[in-house]
Specification:
Elements: H1 7-34, H2 39-47, H3 66-79, H4 81-100, H5 103-114, E1 119-122, E2 138-142, E3 145-149, E4 163-169, E5 179-185
Parallel strand pairs: 1-4
Antiparallel strand pairs: 2-3, 4-5
Helix pairs in contact: 1-3, 3-4
Length: 195
């Protein structure tokens, strides 16, 4: 279906294919064995701006169209599923901000990615995978802030993200309609534990 891919996408596809065939495929095999985070590969991917394919142009990203982006992810996945998941999940973690964030949040989140960071989309919990409505993480208003409490699992980029979009219940009685997304930057201090 290459005719659906934009000219910009076609150009990138060639570059990505070469990078994936020559470097990602072989190196990731080794990283799978050692269990290490493949920093060298992601540093190169960031240099090639692959981490910002889905950041809109107006916020300094590539702003690539959906079909071309999907074709690039497919190419990455052919070399290594983990590599493709990290890059695509980072775009997923940005989506809630782009859809519903304030202008300030959009600029902030996009800048974090453009500067070389990754994001994480945090929905799944132990006991709440296919059925996110049964999630137990809560967000309770405390003055001007919300306090989030709960546990997430299987979060791609969980250990390396610059920011997290975290789904939490603000009104458990409303099911999924009582669930909101919270933009949380890495290093956000935990609230004092009140006895
Ligand atoms: C590589 C990887 C990366 C991931 N990254 C993220 C991430 O970045 N962020 C995030 O939030 N989550 C992430 N996840 C979690 C993923 O979204 C969940 O694994 C998924 O939602 C399924 O949930 P579960 O694993 O709890 O399985 P379950 O919900 O327990 O499902 C187990 C099995 O039961 C089947 N099943 C469930 N309910 C029904 C039903 N009602 N009827 C029939 N069959 C049913 C399912 O199809 C499945 O086969 C990731 C998972 C993987 C494997």
């Amino acid at each position: 279906m290459s005719y659906l891919i934009s000219e910009e996408g076609q150009e990138l596809l060639g570059t990505v294919k070469e990078f994936c065939d020559k470097e990602v495929k072989e190196q990731c095999k080794e990283y799978d064995r050692t269990g290490e985070w493949p920093k060298k590969i992601y540093d190169k991917a960031v240099k090639m701006q692959l981490h910002m394919l889905e950041v809109p142009k107006k916020y300094g990203g590539i702003g690539l169209d959906r079909i071309s982006t999907a074709a690039l992810f497919e190419q990455m996945a052919m070399a290594d599923a983990g590599f493709a998941t990290t890059i695509s999940a980072s775009g997923l973690g940005l989506k809630p901000v782009l859809i519903a964030g304030t202008e300030e949040q959009k600029k902030r989140a996009c800048k974090r990615i453009v500067d070389g960071g990754f994001s994480a989309f945090c929905l799944t919990e132990p006991g709440a995978g296919s059925d996110p409505g049964s999630a137990k993480t809560t967000a309770v208003k405390d003055g001007d802030s919300y306090v989030l409490n709960g546990r997430k699992c299987f979060i791609t980029n969980g250990g390396v993200a610059s920011f997290y979009c975290i789904a939490a219940m603000t009104d458990k009685s409303a099911g999924t309609r009582g669930m909101s997304m919270f933009y949380v930057e890495k290093g956000t201090p935990r609230p004092f534990h009140r006895p």
